[in-house]
């Protein structure tokens, strides 16, 4: 039986039991959420000389009054561990205390709490189920020295403190033997003597003065409350509210008891009741189908926590007769005011955390539960033991909890520890499996502004229930929609299933599922590669359990299989269990070419194979790819997990190792180009590292995922990747969906382009129309080009067939540094031409004058000057001059200057128009105009 988590200590306890406030999470400004800041593997905190592979766990945790030292129980290691969490983003191990040294080699800590400067550790010292025993060790927090040990008179489970830390309650479970058969009962049934009870420890004065009060649970009272086996209550978990009322769950008996800690009197006992469920997945069948129903089953609550003083919440894990896949809020009369029903399981499904291995049993199995207040809002934290997450609810209204967030954890989250005084939340995980590299940890989450990074992908509802998904091991962009991707589940989902993904927002959303069928029946495929064809339908790479079962599969858009292409027999004969791992396709004048990757080298070869299947003639062609070396002596291997076409002969692959967590080394995307012609039977491509994904996987601050398996380039050049959560088998179950930027940035070398610029003249007069010829080459021969004069865009053009000619706008007089810049595309990088210098000089002008040939002296006479220049209408001023005298100066308007002058001397006069020029145009003078002035 899993141990229950301890009650919160210090300020954390106070926050748990404060009366409810009316502040809503929605009123908080700025909006906050719990952000994961660290995941500490506790095997790094074992005593010197302990092998790193030795099993070691973190089950229940407590925190010091200042919130800076976290203490956790390690039942497997027979010790408690200490962590310095002064810097939550970088917790430091501070060693451990061996209980074996304090007692016996079989002593196991079951729970822990902290009172001031003392750690209270409850220890199971039982020799057998029929001889249960235990003690409470009081250990000085500062140096780990035990100052007192108290005999508890039975086998303890959990411990809780009251808000004032004046009393501690300890559940003495005296747990049942699952292999024992009571007289007249079934194997593992109750009753099994001796009966459990509760110990109350008064904490007045120094530890030497602390005293126990035993509280027996009266069988008559329990029987009257409908408790199944009142002579064997099996207390499991304890919590104390602000009024000093102790709530005790009797998990195997499906009951709850309320005790006044001041008097030790039982105030109330009631059954937790039962729940019938519908809309759940109750079959272990490789499918996630929320269409099953379960008959009414007892809740059998594990953890309990008070919401204020008048309501208590239970995590209904179940034990041997029940479990209802959810959690419940009761009032102090024992009435249910709210129940999660099927919603807790559906949270797991929506986030890809549904554990099909547990579907026929207790599903997501809520076990741990804590309540605490952050920024004035009370939150309930409910931990899923089998789906590895903590769901967070706003419980401002206990009758209507509101789900607000999910926090991913490592395997078997057992201890849930809010630390409101520091805005932190800690999760200790009890599952440790060094063989697969998934270790027990303490995870830390910080209450901060903004939306948490997890989840990065979720599913929408379809038919009234969330779309079930798991193990996303393939990824492909939709060629017609940049915001749509396609992904697929591997064999974790028994029958082949494709998923449509909308990436227009964060998190990405699975909006639809498509079942793969063959002859109208579900197709049992292990889809490790997926490509959405521009012609319609999909290519799938299905990895077989044996070499011959590997095949390329073509479907239509509805998922119906239209073609199966087995790999050549000489290849499949040398394939082990690692086969096809990715597929993509290109199209050219010779037709469609399907490219695929094998995960690991064939028997007898040193390089892994990249294959090409030519659809037109049904032939296969092969290329070799050299993998990086695995970590020696670690059980590591390195292989390929994806292939994606960048262009017709350039590809990206995922290369990854077998390692996860802090050991992970190789999670990379490489590129290569295939040679055009080669006489070699298996030409080896030259690879280039494009993206090291490991830093981004580590940036989640969680357990670094092993299976980076899906990668694609969307229609707009955006890059995406996804990890395969393996259906929670030998993995944490967390799916990381990554946005990796743009192809033109990541694949700059592969998508490089060249842009050239030629201008029709290097020197020209202002107004002359210059022609610019732009050439485009490399990864693109068409696209948008900007023509720039320095930093200013002066023209734009579309290049087709590698060339475009553009008439430049008028350039100002002076020297110009012209460039042409290809702005890039989804499949081609931007490039800029070499600058071209063009000098523009002033344009020549020509001025003419019009006036009457004979005028009367002193009378006004109109004169008109016209100034012309090539390619533009000049501006500036014109002087009308007679001899050496300026008659009038006027400005040009639309190339003309008009003035009225008076000529006062009789006889013949010669009048000229003098254009003084401008910044663009040279000066000029008209021919003289003879005017006769009459008396």
SSE layout and pairing:
Layout: H1 10-17, E1 32-41, E2 61-63, E3 69-74, E4 79-84, E5 92-98, H2 99-102, E6 108-115, E7 118-124, E8 134-140, E9 146-151, E10 156-161, E11 167-172, E12 197-202, E13 211-215, H3 219-224, E14 237-240, E15 245-250, E16 255-260, E17 265-271, E18 274-280, E19 292-298, E20 304-307, E21 311-315, E22 327-331, E23 336-339, H4 343-350, E24 366-374, E25 377-384, E26 389-394, E27 402-408, E28 413-419, E29 424-429, E30 441-449, E31 457-459, E32 461-462, E33 465-466, E34 472-478, E35 481-489, E36 497-502, E37 508-515, E38 517-518, E39 521-522, E40 527-532, E41 538-542, E42 551-555, E43 561-566, H5 569-572, E44 580-588, E45 591-598, E46 608-614, E47 619-625, E48 638-647, E49 650-657, E50 667-673, E51 687-692, H6 694-698, E52 708-713, E53 718-723, E54 737-742, H7 743-746, E55 753-759, E56 763-765, E57 771-778, E58 783-789, E59 792-799, E60 803-807, E61 814-822, E62 831-832, E63 836-841, E64 845-851, E65 854-856, E66 860-869, E67 877-882, E68 885-891, E69 896-902, E70 907-915, E71 924-925, E72 929-934
Parallel strand pairs: 31-37, 56-63, 65-72
Antiparallel strand pairs: 1-30, 2-3, 3-4, 4-5, 6-7, 7-8, 8-9, 10-11, 11-12, 12-13, 14-15, 15-16, 16-17, 18-19, 20-21, 21-22, 22-23, 24-25, 25-26, 26-27, 28-29, 29-30, 32-33, 34-35, 35-36, 36-37, 38-39, 40-41, 41-42, 42-43, 44-45, 45-46, 46-47, 48-49, 49-50, 50-51, 52-53, 53-54, 55-57, 57-60, ...
